[in-house]
Amino acid sequence: GPCTECSCSAGKETDKDTSNTKKKENGPFIPKIFFGTRTHKQISQITRELRRTAYSSIPMTILSSRDYTCIHPGVSSSGSNRNEMCVELLEGKHGKSCLYYHGVHKLSEHHAQQSAHRVYQAWDIEDLVSLGKKLRACPYFAARELMVGADIVFCPYNYLLDPQIRESMEINLKGQVVILDEAHNIEDSAREAVSYGVTESQLRAAREELDFMVNNNIRQKAHEPLRAVCCSL
After folding, report:
1. Inside any domain, residue 24
2. Which positions fall inside the Helicase ATP-binding domain (predicted)?
3. What pLDDT sits at residue 115?
């Protein structure tokens, strides 16, 4: 049958709600807690406090970007195109793949063994990255896999507010518990989620490209309104 234990596409497509659905056998639906913070640093502080409580052993995960969790030497040392480079490796472009991605199950199995032996402790992003380097397994995709069995999921605000990020991370908030730390920052975060900044030089470059498209009759009807927008700005 289709794989359900790893992050391959076959397992994801069979049931997209598996990341957010947790039921006891013949029991009621148990919601997850999604804990949103403004910064990754605040997640570190919260997980440190969680470790000091009686709830330190509950299954958890932290969702974060590749900037914090990618350990591939070529990708992690690059500039701002880490997401694109990661996707290219996963798609096998240029005849290369990511061996760390193929070792994701090692991290999941490690946390499963800890939970089984009741030595599971709340962890931070740095802990997961350190373990990922030791096991040669990708922390980014491991954190996403751990969401399936997690009782509490920590993440920055935009993972909960931005619909595109929610979809890409397969986060379904229906019926779940959402906690927002320092919620007075939500207005700014929501505004940022639907805002985009461009420089004048970028606008000029876009206008030149659109001029070329229109003048060469390349999808002219589609490009003329876009050129008009660039010119008006």
Report:
1. no
2. 1-230
3. 62
